[in-house]
């Protein structure tokens, strides 16, 4: 193990410090080497990408600077207790554990087991995510557990499960992308959010691919496209209906595939028959001619791929919108062969693995279901408990926040998320968290939510924490620890074992290493949809990465799913008619514009990590509101002016960036800042009825200059 990090020991290290690791940020999981050298005054770092199948050795600017927050002097280094004046005092681990045990015990004795909730995240390793699910069900015996991935992957995951019988980010390996002759990028900004994947698309273009981007605004991704459909926020399901209608009308379906591999076509065809392309064009803001061009390009191409990300998915009809893009893939038979497939572009580093092993309210490891008797019996067997001891299913992340507000949940154990910035309707969420009797937060940095913790536990960062992560292709990767933990920091899994022990459930949590947990996970996932049984640390070291499903240690799959059959019992994929709906909140005279939200290249999620990196923070020091120059004029707003954005939920201020590439009826604000710059103070809390995803990507907003006097000068 390498010695502890340079910043913390600056001045003492003389030989170069070499750390081989994986970027902690997005779902590509680029491998990298960080070398620190002491020049007599300070440490200087160089960061190089390392060869691996997904990123092919590339790194983006976030990866290049990811050492900065992990080595920052702002790391939390010991357990702390919050005092009544809001400051924190240092305590020992023993004191922290004892207080947690005492308060959880009192609250559960007074109000029942479910009065304590658990909330996790997609940055956790598979081992920690698995253990967090077990911790909730076995140590705390609460049904209330969910995680931030609900805001990220739930629409695509539920659509993949229902349509294809399985949800694994991409149905084919990244190396298939250059073989596609037409690519649809729907609500995905790969150039800023998974930048190291861009060369796959440029290669496809060089080989003649036609690229279609669907996004209300111009981005670095849409600039690469041959055709940009500038859809109105929230109208993707309707737009996909338009694409499908043209494909059916022009006879561009694959009848043999539809007949042999799918069910439900007759109903879908009847549903589309009744639709009018002109009406769809009106609803979506995309001219009928462009819808025709896009459908025809995709329908006529010999191979093709469709990618969706949060633009399509973070909608109150996100599940249905993804189903409709899957309809498109299926009726044209573009799946299960080289250059063909569907990809939900996973977001967080372990967004994929984090949703397979039991952090979700209704799930058990291996993508098993907590409401299914056979699944319960199997996992209870692995855990050595009686199935009747397992709680039932809980509620989704935002609904947990509602229960916090209602005081049904009175204590929360939070690991790897910053919910007061990332939940919709953040003002309400913050009010709720203030009502908690007891909040425990495990984090490595002081997030907006961590500031509210009664007990704060110092967790290790990616540089220190060994474990597996599953990238967007479904490829499981081993991230080795690259240095020892600083201060009194512990790994997430050690914290969970520690708390379980003081709760009197230590016998189920006697793990001494991440690998031991992975071995139990292998057994718990065995036979489930996400079967990791055949994957071992040894194998991951030897092979570099292994795709799931992997039922046997001697087996490897090519990464391409559904070549012969889909994962449903009858082997068929399911088509489903999808309605063209308007969003829950539409623009009106009082709130005349649409607000949509998303990301910029140099920051990550709620910014807790990237705002602490001087190099990344310097690129974007504050939030902004992107709007069209004509819209700005309409509201008497100038470039770089401070404006107030207001919705029915709350207000925020931001500086404007005028850009002709955005729709005139839309404002875009990134999500990476907290407090008064938190865009989730504005977002709508309505949830998708199937997957419980909030509609982060559309609500009605009004904008006005912060200082009216200046605007009058315009
Ligand atoms: N730089 C950076 N990279 C990241 C992250 C980050 O925070 N920063 N986060 C990671 C995570 S967790 C995730 S989930 C992914 C997210 O990756 P993406 O989903 O690609 O990112 P977003 O910016 O949220 O949204 C993508 C695009 O959707 C567009 N959009 C908005 N509304 C709509 C709509 O109604 N319809 C359509 N079709 N498009 C719409 C936005 O303009 C935006 O360009 O990125 C991962 N990578
Ligand atoms: N308006 C709007 N809101 C959104 C979105 C949007 O597009 N628009 N996107 C949504 C999406 S896709 C996502 S994924 C969520 C993300 O929402 P969050 O989960 O709240 O975002 P993060 O900033 O990643 O917060 C992670 C916290 O965990 C800490 N952390 C990181 N790694 C570890 C670890 O290994 N262990 C522990 N214990 N802590 C760790 C970090 O320091 C940070 O404080 O936000 C959602 N919210
Ligand atoms: S942020 Fe994503 S693309 Fe960039 S280096 Fe990290 S893992 Fe790679
Ligand atoms: Mo995400």
TrEMBL record:
Names of the cofactor(s): Mo-bis(molybdopterin guanine dinucleotide)
GO MF terms held by the record: 4 iron, 4 sulfur cluster binding; metal ion binding; molybdopterin cofactor binding; NADH dehydrogenase activity
SUPFAM superfamilies, alphabetized: ADC-like (SSF50692), Formate dehydrogenase/DMSO reductase, domains 1-3 (SSF53706)
Pfam families in UniProt: Molybdop_Fe4S4, Molybdopterin, Molydop_binding
Keyword field: 4Fe-4S, Iron, Iron-sulfur, Metal-binding
A GO-annotated cellular component: membrane
Domain 4Fe-4S Mo/W bis-MGD-type: 16-74
InterPro entries assigned: Asp_de-COase-like_dom_sf (IPR009010), MoPterin_dinucl-bd_dom (IPR006657), Mopterin_OxRdtase (IPR006656), Mopterin_OxRdtase_4Fe-4S_dom (IPR006963), Mopterin_OxRdtase_prok_CS (IPR006655), Prok_molybdopt-oxidoreductase (IPR050123)
Any one Gene Ontology BP term: respiratory electron transport chain
PANTHER family recorded: NADH-QUINONE OXIDOREDUCTASE SUBUNIT G (PTHR43105:SF10), RESPIRATORY NITRATE REDUCTASE (PTHR43105)
Protein name per its UniProtKB record: NasC
């Amino acid at each position: 193990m390498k010695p502890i990090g340079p910043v913390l020991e600056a001045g003492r290290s003389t030989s170069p410090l070499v750390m081989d690791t994986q970027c902690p940020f997005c779902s590509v999981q680029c491998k990298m080497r960080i070398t620190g050298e002491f020049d007599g005054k300070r440490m200087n770092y160089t960061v190089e990408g390392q060869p691996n199948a997904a990123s092919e050795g590339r790194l983006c600017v976030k990866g290049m600077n990811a050492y900065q927050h992990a080595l920052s002097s702002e790391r939390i280094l010991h357990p702390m207790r919050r005092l009544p004046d809001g400051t924190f005092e240092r305590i020992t681990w023993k004191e922290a554990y004892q207080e947690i045990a005492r308060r959880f015990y009192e609250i559960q004795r007074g109000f029942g087991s479910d009065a304590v909730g658990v909330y996790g995240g997609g940055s956790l390793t598979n081992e920690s995510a698995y253990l967090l699910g077990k911790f909730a069900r076995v140590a705390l015996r609460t049904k209330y557990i969910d995680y931030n991935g609900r805001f990220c992957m739930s629409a695509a995951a539920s659509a993949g499960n229902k349509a294809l019988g399985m949800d694994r980010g991409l149905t084919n390996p990244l190396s298939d992308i250059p073989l596609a002759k037409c690519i649809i990028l729907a609500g995905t900004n790969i150039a800023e959010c998974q930048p190291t994947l861009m060369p796959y698309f440029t290669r496809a273009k060089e080989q003649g691919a036609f690229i279609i981007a669907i996004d209300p605004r111009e981005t670095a991704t849409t600039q690469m496209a041959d055709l940009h459909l500038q859809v109105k926020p929230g109208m993707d399901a309707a737009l996909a209906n338009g694409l499908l209608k043209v494909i059916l009308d022009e006879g561009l379906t694959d009848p043999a595939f539809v007949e042999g591999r799918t069910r439900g076509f007759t109903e879908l065809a009847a549903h589309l028959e009744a639709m009018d392309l002109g009406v769809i064009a009106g609803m979506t803001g995309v001219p009928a001619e462009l819808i025709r061009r896009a459908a025809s390009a995709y329908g006529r191409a010999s191979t093709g791929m469709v990618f969706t990300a949060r633009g399509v998915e973070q909608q109150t009809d996100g599940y249905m919108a993804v189903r409709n893009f899957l309809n498109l893939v299926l009726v044209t038979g573009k799946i299960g062969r080289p250059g063909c497939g569907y990809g939900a572009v996973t977001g967080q580093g372990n967004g994929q693995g984090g949703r397979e092993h039991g952090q979700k309210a209704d799930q058990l490891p291996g993508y098993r279901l907590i409401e299914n008797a056979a699944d319960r019996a199997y996992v209870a067997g692995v855990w050595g408990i009686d199935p009747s001891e397992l709680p039932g299913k809980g509620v989704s992340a935002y609904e947990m926040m509602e229960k916090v507000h209602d005081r049904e949940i009175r204590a929360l154990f939070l690991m790897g998320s910053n919910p007061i910035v990332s939940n919709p309707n953040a003002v309400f969420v913050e009010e709720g968290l203030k009502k908690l009797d007891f909040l425990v937060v495990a984090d490595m940095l002081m997030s907006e939510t961590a500031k509210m913790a009664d007990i704060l536990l110092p967790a290790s960062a990616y540089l220190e924490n060994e474990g597996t992560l599953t990238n967007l292709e479904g490829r499981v990767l081993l991230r080795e620890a690259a240095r020892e933990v600083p201060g009194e920091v512990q790994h997430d899994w050690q914290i969970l074992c520690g708390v379980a022990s003081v709760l009197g459930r230590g016998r189920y949590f006697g793990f001494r290493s991440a690998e031991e947990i992975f071995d139990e996970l292998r057994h718990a996932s065995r036979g489930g949809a996400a079967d990791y049984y055949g994957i071992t640390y040894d194998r991951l070291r030897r092979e570099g990465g292994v795709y799931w499903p992997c039922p046997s240690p001697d087996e490897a799959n090519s990464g391409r799913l559904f070549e012969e059959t889909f994962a449903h019992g009858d082997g068929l994929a399911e088509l489903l008619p999808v309605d063209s709906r308007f969003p829950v909140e539409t623009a009106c005279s009082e709130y005349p514009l649409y607000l949509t939200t998303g990301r910029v290249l140099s920051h990550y999620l709620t910014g807790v990590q990237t705002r602490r990196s001087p190099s990344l923070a310097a690129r974007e020091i504050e939030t902004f509101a992107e709007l069209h120059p004509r819209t700005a004029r309409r509201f008497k707003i100038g470039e770089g002016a401070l404006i107030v954005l207001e919705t029915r939920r709350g207000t925020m201020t931001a500086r404007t960036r005028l850009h002709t590439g955005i729709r005139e009826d839309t404002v875009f604000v990134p999500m990476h800042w907290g407090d008064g710059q938190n865009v989730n103070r504005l977002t709508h809390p309505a949830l998708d009825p199937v997957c419980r995803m909030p509609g982060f990507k559309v609500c009605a907003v009004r904008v006005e200059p912060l200082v009216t006097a200046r605007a009058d000068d315009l």
